[in-house]
Design brief:
By secondary structure, the chain is an alpha+beta fold. It has twelve helices and eleven strands. The longest helix has 43 residues, at 258-300. It is elongated, with a radius of gyration of 35 Å.
Length: 397
C-alpha cells in the first residue's frame, strides 16, 4: 500500500494568531510602522469627509437661498459710455410672465464718514446706495438689529447698514448717526450678511425718495434684482437685458448670484483632489515603512524560521505567516486612520456648524487600500522568508 503523506495546513485562525504574535513581540516598531498607514488613511478619509460636508452645507444654503435670483446691472455701450437703466425698469421686468418679484438698487454719490470730525476722504470703504422697500424680501435677507426701511423711513435721512459696513464704521446699535456728505443720517437697522449678494454687505442703504431729496439722485436704478419660477430662470435670463434696455441690451450685464456658490463647490472639488493626492503619498510612505519593517523582521527571525521549517512547516506556511503579519500591521494602521479621519471630520464639521458627512465608500476604500498595501509590502519579505534553508537559518546569528 502506497504511503500518501501530505503536509498539514494551518487554518486561518492559527495563521492570524501566529501573525499577531509576531507583531506583539515588536510593539514599538509596529506602532511606528502603523502610524504611517494611519496618517495616510486619516488624511484621505478626512479630506473626503470635509469636502462632502462642505458641499452638503453649500447645497443646503443654495436650497435655502434659492437659485432663481437674477441680477441685471448697468454696464457700458459700444462706445464705452456708461449705460443708464430706465427709471421704470422694475415695472418693465415685472411684466415678464414668470417673474415673481423685482426690485432695484442704485448708486448714490455720497461720501460716508463716521462723524463730521472725520475727513471726507476717509470713507472706511463704505459706499451709499438707494434701495427699494421690497429689496430685503426679494433677496431673502434678514435684519440683525433694528428694522428695515418703511414707507416713512424711505423719505427721511435714515439708513440701513450692511454687516461689513456697520463693522467698518464702528456702529454696534441702531439710533447712532453717520455722515453722508454733509447730511447727518440716522442708522435704523443693521443687516445680517447677504450670502447671495455680498457686495451689499459694504453698503449704507437709503430710500429712493431720500436719495433724490438729500443727495441729488436722478432716479435711475443701477442694479435690478428679480426672482422667477425655478423652471423659467434661463428663459427669463435670455430676455431680461432687452426687456430692461430694448435696442441696447449689450449694455446690461445679467448674472445669476448662485453661480458663484456653485463655482465655489467646483473649486473645493479641485482642492479635494489635490489633498487626496497628498494622502495617497502619505499612504505610499506608510507602505514603504511596512515593507521595511517586514524585511528587517525576516532578517532578525531567521533562527525562528529555520526552527519552524525543521519541525515541518512548509514554505507556504512561512509565506502565509509573514503575509498575515503584514496584513495585520496594515489593517491596524488602516482602522486607526479611518477612525481618526472620521473623528476629524465630525469635529471640524461641528465647529463650522455643518452637517457632518463621511461617505461609507471612503471608509471602505481606505480599508481596501490598506489591505492592498499590506499584501504588496509583505509579499517580498514573505517569499524571502519561505526560501530560507532550515540549516542555514538555524546557524544564522
Amino acid at each position: 500500500m502506497k504511503n500518501d503523506l501530505r503536509p498539514s495546513r494551518l487554518p486561518l485562525s492559527d495563521i492570524a494568531r501566529v501573525g499577531a504574535f509576531g507583531l506583539r513581540a515588536r510593539r514599538a516598531r509596529v506602532v511606528l510602522s502603523a502610524l504611517g498607514i494611519a496618517i495616510g488613511i486619516a488624511t484621505m478619509v478626512a479630506v473626503v469627509g470635509l469636502s462632502e460636508s462642505s458641499r452638503a452645507d453649500l447645497m443646503a444654503r443654495l436650497d435655502r437661498l434659492g437659485t432663481n435670483l437674477l441680477t441685471a446691472e448697468a454696464g457700458e455701450d459700444a462706445m464705452g459710455r456708461a449705460v443708464k437703466l430706465p427709471k421704470n425698469a422694475v415695472a418693465m421686468v415685472e411684466r415678464v410672465g414668470p417673474v415673481l418679484h423685482a426690485t432695484a438698487t442704485a448708486d448714490v454719490d455720497a461720501r460716508i464718514r463716521r462723524s463730521d470730525v472725520v475727513p471726507e476722504e476717509r470713507t472706511a470703504g463704505v459706499t451709499a446706495q438707494a434701495a427699494r422697500l421690497d429689496l430685503l424680501s426679494t433677496l431673502g435677507g434678514e435684519v440683525d438689529k433694528g428694522a428695515w426701511l418703511d414707507p416713512a423711513g424711505e423719505r427721511l435721512p435714515t439708513t440701513v447698514l450692511g454687516a461689513v459696513a456697520a463693522e467698518r464704521l464702528g456702529i454696534t446699535r441702531t439710533g447712532e448717526t453717520i455722515m453722508m456728505n454733509d447730511t447727518r443720517v440716522v442708522v435704523v437697522g443693521i443687516l445680517k450678511p447677504l450670502e447671495l449678494v455680498p457686495t451689499l454687505d459694504r453698503v449704507a442703504m437709503v430710500g429712493f425718495p431720500a436719495a433724490e431729496r438729500h443727495f441729488g439722485f436722478d432716479g435711475h436704478p443701477t442694479t435690478i434684482f428679480e426672482r422667477s419660477t425655478d423652471a423659467s430662470v434661463e428663459d427669463v435670463r435670455a430676455v431680461l437685458a432687452r426687456t430692461i434696455s430694448p435696442g441696447d441690451e449689450a449694455g446690461v450685464k445679467v448674472s445669476r448670484p448662485s453661480d458663484a456658490l456653485a463655482a465655489k463647490a467646483a473649486t473645493d472639488e479641485g482642492l479635494t483632489t489635490l489633498m487626496l493626492g497628498l494622502g495617497a503619498v502619505a499612504l505610499l510612505v506608510g507602505g514603504v515603512g511596512v515593507a521595511n519593517t517586514m524585511v528587517i523582521s525576516v532578517l532578525e527571525r531567521r533562527q525562528e524560521i529555520g526552527l519552524r521549517r525543521s519541525l515541518g512547516a512548509t514554505r507556504s506556511a512561512i509565506r502565509l505567516q509573514f503575509l498575515a503579519e503584514s496584513l495585520l500591521l496594515s489593517a491596524l494602521g488602516g482602522v486607526t486612520g479611518a477612525l481618526l479621519g472620521a473623528a476629524v471630520t465630525y469635529g471640524f464639521a461641528r465647529v463650522q456648524e455643518w452637517t457632518a458627512v463621511v461617505p461609507p465608500w471612503s471608509l471602505a476604500g481606505g480599508l481596501a487600500a490598506t489591505l492592498l498595501i499590506g499584501v504588496v509590502a509583505g509579499l517580498y519579505p514573505a517569499i524571502r522568508a519561505s526560501r530560507l534553508h532550515p540549516t542555514v537559518a538555524l546557524h544564522a546569528t
